[in-house]
Amino acid sequence: MRRLWIVTGTVVTVAAAAVAYQVSKHWKDYHFVGTRLKVDMSKPDALIRTSSLSKLPRDLLRVPIARDVLTEDLAFYYEQNEDRMGLNGAIRRIAYEHDLDWQDKLYASIFNEAAEVAFWRDGKGALRHYAVVMKHGVFNKALQEAAKVALKDGQLKKAGEISTGKGTAEVLALEINPRRTLLLISQGDHVVVLSDPGLLLDDSSSIVKEARSAVANWLEHDGALSLQFDLDNIAAAPAAPADTAKHTLAIGAPTMALGYGAFMSGFKGMRFDFGGNWSTAVWLDAKKQTNAQLLDPSLWTAAPSNPSACVSLPVDWAMVNKVLTEASAKPKLPDQGLATLSGPGLACWYKESNLYSPVFIAKLPLKTANREATLQAMASWAIASGEQAAPGKGATKAKPEQKLWRNEKSRATLAASGDFVVFSPDGGLVEKVVDTIARSNPSVADQNGNTSNTLGLITPKPLSEMAQREVYAALAGADDANYLAAAQKHLPARMKALATYPAIRLELSNTQANGKAWQQVDWVSKEKPN
User: Fold this and answer.
1) Residues 6+ apart with CB under 8 A from 367
2) Distance between CA atoms of 1 and 76, rounded to whole angstroms?
3) For residues 391 and 350, is the Cβ–Cβ distance under 8 A?
4) Which of 209, 260, 417, 421 has the fewest C-beta atoms under 10 angstroms from its C-beta?
5) pLDDT tens-digit profile of 154-206?
6) Could you tell me if 129 and 183 are in contact, meaning their C-beta atoms sit under 8 angstroms apart?
7) pTM
8) Are 201 and 194 spatial neighbours (Cβ–Cβ below 8 Å)?
9) From CA 48, how far away is CA 86, in angstroms rounded?
10) Is the distance from CB of 222 to CB of 155 less than 8 angstroms?
């Protein structure tokens, strides 16, 4: 499911931040008044490489599913965003009050240039903090003039200096409104814009050493951020040559895996290229995760048909087991507990459940040594809340080798059936999987035929139903009335458009890269019905 929402949600959020400078709570001026933002500037969580910031939203809308679900409102919203207009006003006011020869086209040209935009997660996991890096001689000259008047301006302040191999770059703090202060750093024809002074400064308004080094690297080297995401190393040729893509969005594994990227050591991230042809790729390290280790067609025979979404998870079970063992789990897992699980896992969401209760399917072969003890320990550790978990009786047509464990105080359930192990906070989904393994229900494999290269599956109709219900539930609080009203007005039409799409299967290309490289992912589906 994560992949679809990257297309229809995260892409938009990220692009919005790049173009419109989203609202932040942290700063009124450049003096740091709170805790330093805890991000590693040398390791962005996501990156946009674009030929034009201003064209990005409209080019995104050329992707059919984005156009139908998001509509032209996306482009209009970001062209008229409060913070973007505030930046325009600040530039014009400074030029007017200090008699600077800045023309109106300066502002427009800022957003019409090629750029790299790096993003970092905030404390809630949102890609809120960002840095824009571009080559812009005209803007750089304007900043040099602005630095001369900074001591006499209420909105513009000097915030420090950064030394690079090319000289010294001044750091300017520009307050564009009471909620947003940007840091502007220029040298030569390179310009860096930081969304929050806390990315660079500590709580005493001093520049942090590691952040200084990262910014200096961006100022000194063209494409430094793209190099970190290895964007030009594509193992299999995408739908169009790499140099025709006008915009690339790359999201690293820590963000996509919600912070659990360390447990998927061979998976590095995903990318979406658009503006010319639309293409998708996954960043894999073949030395840690081969295609064969990432794909397991048998898992799809256990997944019930018509999921809202399913995705293959390239889990490093030995690493997971190591962390859980060191975490002093009670009851203690066997020494090789989760390490005995084999191959990738599968996570699936179904419309009858909710966003926070997917079902997980993995392999624990019947021939595994001490399998029964391992299963019991897993059940006791994963679903018990003080009491010992015990086999339960499900409404399943069970075979002798099928076993279920339930928590008596919740619906959390773990089951073993044949070579499969199944877990979910929603016991109903576990029973549905067990029935599918017993061939009482059709599976995803039955529904889609060849799943040998399948990474994920999206079924838009049940996904749209679940998504709409989940959004309404999330906005049920007393303080969310306005947001709920807006959602009730706009969301149904968007979800109705999404529901018209047929099931979409994400397939990994057959080409196996050597080492780390981007591998093409194809979106396979029947033609959208009229």
Assistant:
1) none
2) 27
3) no
4) 209
5) 567 788 889 888 888 888 888 777 777 888 888 877 888 888 888 988 888 88
6) no
7) 0.76
8) no
9) 23
10) no
